[in-house]
Amino acid sequence: MTMSNVSSNTACTYTAAPKRRSVLATIAHWFRVYQTRQTLKALDLHSLEDIGISPAEARKEAQRPLWDAPRHWS
């Protein structure tokens, strides 16, 4: 196939590779995740109701591994 046979409306999409963190940045991120999850676990029932989660959900979130966090938490 020659270039003249390729349709001009063919789109090529590339996704950028995720940015890699330094070791220190990764450790700092994990520490923030840990702190956030421990704070969530320590909330009282009224506060948990305000944010719409149950005590069981808060405990479950607090028990997740440090590396198991959404990308937008970076």
Question: Features of this protein?
Answer:
single chain; 74 residues; mainly alpha; 47% helix
Shape: elongated
- N- to C-terminal separation? 45 Å
Secondary-structure element series: HHH
Average pLDDT over all residues: 81
| Total beta strands | 0
Q: Please estimate the helix content.
A: 40-55%
Query: Per DSSP, what share of the residues sits in E-state strands of 2 or more residues?
Result: under 5%
Question: Which parts are unreliable, with pLDDT below 50 for 5 consecutive residues or more?
Answer: none
* Assembly type: single chain
Taking the sheet with the most strands, its summary is: none
Radius of gyration, CA atoms, in whole angstroms: 22 Å
Q: Number of helical runs?
A: 3
Question: Structural class of the helices, strands and pairings?
Answer: mainly alpha
Pfam families: YjiS-like
Organism: Harenicola maris
Protein name: DUF1127 domain-containing protein
InterPro entries: YjiS-like (IPR009506)
Structure commentary:
With 74 residues, the chain is mainly α. It has a domain of 51 residues. Helix content is 47%, strand content 0%. The longest helix is centred in the middle third of the chain and has 20 residues. It is elongated, with a radius of gyration of 22 Å. Pfam families: YjiS-like (PF06568). InterPro entries: YjiS-like (IPR009506).
